[in-house]
Amino acid sequence: MSDAWLDEIKWTAEGLVPVIAQETGTGKVLMFAWMNRDALRLTQQNGHMVYWSRSRGKLWHKGEESGNQQVVKQLRLDCDNDVILAEVEQKGGIACHTGRHNCFFQRLEGGRWVTVEPVIKDPKEIYR
Amino acid sequence: MSDAWLDEIKWTAEGLVPVIAQETGTGKVLMFAWMNRDALRLTQQNGHMVYWSRSRGKLWHKGEESGNQQVVKQLRLDCDNDVILAEVEQKGGIACHTGRHNCFFQRLEGGRWVTVEPVIKDPKEIYR
Fold it and tell me: Is residue B121 one of the residues assigned to a domain?
Protein backbone atom coordinates (compact mmCIF):
# COMPACT_ATOMS: atom_id res chain seq x y z
CA MET A 1 0.00 0.00 0.00
CA SER A 2 1.37 3.40 -0.92
CA ASP A 3 2.00 6.04 1.72
CA ALA A 4 -0.05 8.68 -0.11
CA TRP A 5 -2.76 8.53 2.57
CA LEU A 6 -0.14 9.46 5.17
CA ASP A 7 1.05 12.37 3.05
CA GLU A 8 -2.47 13.81 3.04
CA ILE A 9 -2.39 14.34 6.78
CA LYS A 10 -1.41 17.78 8.03
CA TRP A 11 1.05 16.86 10.73
CA THR A 12 1.93 19.36 13.45
CA ALA A 13 5.34 21.00 13.51
CA GLU A 14 6.38 18.12 15.77
CA GLY A 15 5.16 15.60 13.19
CA LEU A 16 2.12 14.53 15.18
CA VAL A 17 -1.62 14.25 14.68
CA PRO A 18 -4.23 14.21 17.48
CA VAL A 19 -6.25 11.01 17.72
CA ILE A 20 -9.62 10.35 19.33
CA ALA A 21 -10.39 6.71 20.16
CA GLN A 22 -14.09 5.90 20.24
CA GLU A 23 -15.49 2.54 21.30
CA THR A 24 -17.40 0.59 18.68
CA GLY A 25 -20.90 -0.27 19.75
CA THR A 26 -21.20 2.03 22.77
CA GLY A 27 -19.91 5.11 20.94
CA LYS A 28 -18.11 6.17 24.12
CA VAL A 29 -15.01 8.28 23.72
CA LEU A 30 -12.27 6.25 25.36
CA MET A 31 -9.21 8.45 25.19
CA PHE A 32 -7.29 11.10 23.34
CA ALA A 33 -3.65 10.78 22.34
CA TRP A 34 -1.18 11.52 19.55
CA MET A 35 0.35 9.58 16.69
CA ASN A 36 3.33 10.25 14.50
CA ARG A 37 3.69 8.89 11.00
CA ASP A 38 5.21 5.59 12.11
CA ALA A 39 2.50 5.09 14.74
CA LEU A 40 -0.28 5.65 12.23
CA ARG A 41 1.34 3.38 9.65
CA LEU A 42 1.76 0.62 12.23
CA THR A 43 -1.81 1.13 13.43
CA GLN A 44 -3.09 0.56 9.92
CA GLN A 45 -0.72 -2.34 9.23
CA ASN A 46 -1.21 -4.24 12.48
CA GLY A 47 -4.85 -3.40 13.13
CA HIS A 48 -4.38 -2.20 16.67
CA MET A 49 -3.75 1.27 17.99
CA VAL A 50 -0.16 2.47 18.24
CA TYR A 51 0.32 5.96 19.67
CA TRP A 52 3.29 8.25 20.09
CA SER A 53 3.99 8.85 23.74
CA ARG A 54 5.08 12.46 24.05
CA SER A 55 6.14 12.00 27.68
CA ARG A 56 8.26 8.94 26.95
CA GLY A 57 9.29 10.02 23.46
CA LYS A 58 8.61 6.65 21.87
CA LEU A 59 6.02 4.52 20.17
CA TRP A 60 3.36 3.22 22.50
CA HIS A 61 1.62 0.03 21.46
CA LYS A 62 -1.57 0.48 23.46
CA GLY A 63 -2.00 -2.51 25.71
CA GLU A 64 1.64 -3.58 25.52
CA GLU A 65 1.80 -3.74 29.33
CA SER A 66 -1.85 -4.03 30.31
CA GLY A 67 -2.97 -6.37 27.55
CA ASN A 68 -5.83 -3.95 26.91
CA GLN A 69 -5.26 -3.55 23.19
CA GLN A 70 -7.48 -1.46 20.96
CA VAL A 71 -8.48 -3.28 17.79
CA VAL A 72 -9.08 -0.90 14.89
CA LYS A 73 -12.51 -1.02 13.26
CA GLN A 74 -12.15 2.06 11.09
CA LEU A 75 -10.08 5.21 10.78
CA ARG A 76 -11.60 8.57 9.97
CA LEU A 77 -9.99 11.90 9.09
CA ASP A 78 -11.55 15.31 9.64
CA CYS A 79 -12.29 18.12 7.21
CA ASP A 80 -8.95 19.84 7.82
CA ASN A 81 -6.96 16.60 7.51
CA ASP A 82 -5.44 17.21 10.90
CA VAL A 83 -7.41 15.05 13.37
CA ILE A 84 -7.97 11.27 13.36
CA LEU A 85 -11.04 9.55 14.78
CA ALA A 86 -10.53 5.83 15.35
CA GLU A 87 -13.35 3.42 16.00
CA VAL A 88 -11.93 0.65 18.16
CA GLU A 89 -12.79 -2.44 20.11
CA GLN A 90 -11.38 -2.02 23.61
CA LYS A 91 -9.95 -5.30 24.86
CA GLY A 92 -10.49 -5.86 28.57
CA GLY A 93 -13.02 -3.04 28.67
CA ILE A 94 -10.44 -0.69 30.19
CA ALA A 95 -8.84 2.14 28.24
CA CYS A 96 -7.60 4.34 31.08
CA HIS A 97 -4.42 3.84 33.07
CA THR A 98 -6.48 4.53 36.22
CA GLY A 99 -8.30 1.23 35.62
CA ARG A 100 -11.48 2.90 34.39
CA HIS A 101 -13.37 2.15 31.19
CA ASN A 102 -12.36 5.48 29.66
CA CYS A 103 -10.33 8.56 30.51
CA PHE A 104 -13.19 11.06 30.70
CA PHE A 105 -14.41 10.19 34.16
CA GLN A 106 -14.46 13.70 35.64
CA ARG A 107 -17.66 15.67 35.14
CA LEU A 108 -18.14 19.37 35.87
CA GLU A 109 -20.84 19.62 38.53
CA GLY A 110 -21.56 22.83 40.40
CA GLY A 111 -18.16 24.27 39.58
CA ARG A 112 -16.15 21.20 40.53
CA TRP A 113 -14.70 18.27 38.60
CA VAL A 114 -16.33 15.21 40.13
CA THR A 115 -15.23 11.63 39.46
CA VAL A 116 -18.31 9.83 38.16
CA GLU A 117 -16.96 6.55 36.79
CA PRO A 118 -15.81 3.56 38.81
CA VAL A 119 -12.40 1.92 38.81
CA ILE A 120 -12.96 -1.47 37.19
CA LYS A 121 -9.56 -2.89 38.02
CA ASP A 122 -6.85 -1.66 40.35
CA PRO A 123 -3.98 -0.26 38.25
CA LYS A 124 -1.56 -2.20 40.46
CA GLU A 125 -3.20 -5.34 39.11
CA ILE A 126 -2.98 -4.05 35.53
CA TYR A 127 0.64 -2.88 35.49
CA ARG A 128 2.70 -5.36 37.42
CA MET B 1 -18.61 30.40 40.86
CA SER B 2 -14.92 30.27 41.64
CA ASP B 3 -12.34 29.69 38.92
CA ALA B 4 -10.72 26.79 40.75
CA TRP B 5 -12.07 24.31 38.19
CA LEU B 6 -10.24 26.25 35.47
CA ASP B 7 -7.01 26.19 37.48
CA GLU B 8 -7.17 22.40 37.58
CA ILE B 9 -6.77 22.15 33.83
CA LYS B 10 -3.28 21.60 32.46
CA TRP B 11 -3.19 24.17 29.69
CA THR B 12 -0.65 23.88 26.89
CA ALA B 13 2.25 26.32 26.69
CA GLU B 14 -0.04 28.40 24.45
CA GLY B 15 -2.75 28.39 27.13
CA LEU B 16 -5.04 26.01 25.27
CA VAL B 17 -6.81 22.73 25.89
CA PRO B 18 -8.02 20.31 23.19
CA VAL B 19 -11.76 19.77 23.09
CA ILE B 20 -13.81 16.93 21.61
CA ALA B 21 -17.47 17.72 20.90
CA GLN B 22 -19.74 14.68 20.96
CA GLU B 23 -23.40 14.76 20.03
CA THR B 24 -25.87 13.89 22.74
CA GLY B 25 -28.15 11.02 21.80
CA THR B 26 -26.27 9.75 18.75
CA GLY B 27 -22.87 9.69 20.47
CA LYS B 28 -21.27 10.81 17.22
CA VAL B 29 -18.07 12.79 17.47
CA LEU B 30 -18.85 16.09 15.76
CA MET B 31 -15.56 17.97 15.78
CA PHE B 32 -12.30 18.66 17.51
CA ALA B 33 -11.07 22.13 18.40
CA TRP B 34 -9.29 24.14 21.08
CA MET B 35 -10.33 26.40 23.94
CA ASN B 36 -8.41 28.89 26.00
CA ARG B 37 -9.39 29.84 29.52
CA ASP B 38 -11.80 32.56 28.43
CA ALA B 39 -13.47 30.26 25.91
CA LEU B 40 -14.02 27.54 28.49
CA ARG B 41 -15.32 29.99 31.08
CA LEU B 42 -17.75 31.46 28.54
CA THR B 43 -18.81 27.98 27.45
CA GLN B 44 -19.72 27.13 31.02
CA GLN B 45 -21.37 30.49 31.70
CA ASN B 46 -23.41 30.76 28.50
CA GLY B 47 -24.16 27.09 27.96
CA HIS B 48 -23.00 26.95 24.37
CA MET B 49 -19.63 26.07 22.96
CA VAL B 50 -17.06 28.82 22.56
CA TYR B 51 -13.74 27.80 21.04
CA TRP B 52 -10.44 29.55 20.47
CA SER B 53 -9.75 29.87 16.77
CA ARG B 54 -6.01 29.36 16.35
CA SER B 55 -6.12 30.44 12.70
CA ARG B 56 -8.01 33.65 13.42
CA GLY B 57 -6.49 34.23 16.85
CA LYS B 58 -9.77 35.03 18.53
CA LEU B 59 -12.73 33.58 20.39
CA TRP B 60 -15.07 31.63 18.18
CA HIS B 61 -18.65 31.39 19.34
CA LYS B 62 -19.63 28.24 17.44
CA GLY B 63 -22.64 29.04 15.26
CA GLU B 64 -22.08 32.81 15.35
CA GLU B 65 -22.29 32.92 11.54
CA SER B 66 -24.12 29.71 10.70
CA GLY B 67 -26.61 29.70 13.56
CA ASN B 68 -25.54 26.13 14.23
CA GLN B 69 -24.82 26.56 17.92
CA GLN B 70 -23.75 23.73 20.18
CA VAL B 71 -25.71 23.62 23.43
CA VAL B 72 -23.68 22.17 26.29
CA LYS B 73 -25.14 19.11 28.02
CA GLN B 74 -22.12 18.23 30.11
CA LEU B 75 -18.40 18.82 30.30
CA ARG B 76 -15.92 16.08 31.09
CA LEU B 77 -12.21 16.18 31.83
CA ASP B 78 -9.76 13.35 31.25
CA CYS B 79 -7.42 11.57 33.64
CA ASP B 80 -4.49 13.89 32.89
CA ASN B 81 -6.62 17.04 33.21
CA ASP B 82 -5.55 18.11 29.74
CA VAL B 83 -8.41 17.15 27.40
CA ILE B 84 -12.09 18.21 27.51
CA LEU B 85 -14.96 16.08 26.23
CA ALA B 86 -18.17 18.07 25.72
CA GLU B 87 -21.56 16.46 25.22
CA VAL B 88 -23.56 18.87 23.09
CA GLU B 89 -26.80 19.30 21.23
CA GLN B 90 -25.94 20.34 17.67
CA LYS B 91 -28.39 22.98 16.45
CA GLY B 92 -29.25 22.64 12.78
CA GLY B 93 -27.73 19.16 12.69
CA ILE B 94 -24.58 20.51 11.04
CA ALA B 95 -21.27 20.83 12.87
CA CYS B 96 -18.86 20.99 9.93
CA HIS B 97 -18.08 24.06 7.85
CA THR B 98 -18.41 21.82 4.76
CA GLY B 99 -22.14 21.54 5.50
CA ARG B 100 -21.89 17.99 6.81
CA HIS B 101 -23.23 16.64 10.09
CA ASN B 102 -19.73 16.22 11.49
CA CYS B 103 -16.12 16.79 10.51
CA PHE B 104 -15.03 13.13 10.36
CA PHE B 105 -16.44 12.30 6.96
CA GLN B 106 -13.31 10.77 5.40
CA ARG B 107 -12.81 7.05 5.97
CA LEU B 108 -9.67 5.08 5.20
CA GLU B 109 -10.65 2.47 2.61
CA GLY B 110 -8.07 0.45 0.70
CA GLY B 111 -5.34 2.95 1.37
CA ARG B 112 -7.34 6.04 0.42
CA TRP B 113 -9.36 8.61 2.36
CA VAL B 114 -12.86 8.36 0.95
CA THR B 115 -15.65 10.85 1.67
CA VAL B 116 -18.50 8.81 3.11
CA GLU B 117 -20.90 11.43 4.51
CA PRO B 118 -23.22 13.66 2.50
CA VAL B 119 -23.31 17.45 2.43
CA ILE B 120 -26.59 18.36 4.14
CA LYS B 121 -26.50 22.03 3.23
CA ASP B 122 -24.34 23.95 0.76
CA PRO B 123 -21.81 26.03 2.75
CA LYS B 124 -22.67 28.96 0.48
CA GLU B 125 -26.15 28.81 1.96
CA ILE B 126 -24.77 28.56 5.50
CA TYR B 127 -22.21 31.38 5.38
CA ARG B 128 -23.69 34.25 3.42
Answer: no
Transcribe B63-102 into DSSP letters: TTTTS--EEEEEEEE-TTS--EEEEEEEGGG--STTSSSS
CB neighbour burial string for B27-61, b if at least 16 within 10 angstroms, e if fewer: ebbbbbbbbbbebbbbbbeeebbbbbeeeeeeebb
CB contact under 8 A, B104 and A85: yes
Q: Could you tell me if residue A117 is inside a domain?
A: no
The whole domain housing B66 covers 4-93
pTM score of the predicted model: 0.97
| ipTM exceeding 0.90, yes/no | yes
Write the DSSP symbol of residue B61: E
CATH of the domain at B83: 3.10.20.810
How many domains does chain A contain in total? 1
CB-based contact B29 A106, cutoff 8 Å: no
Write down how long chain A is: 128
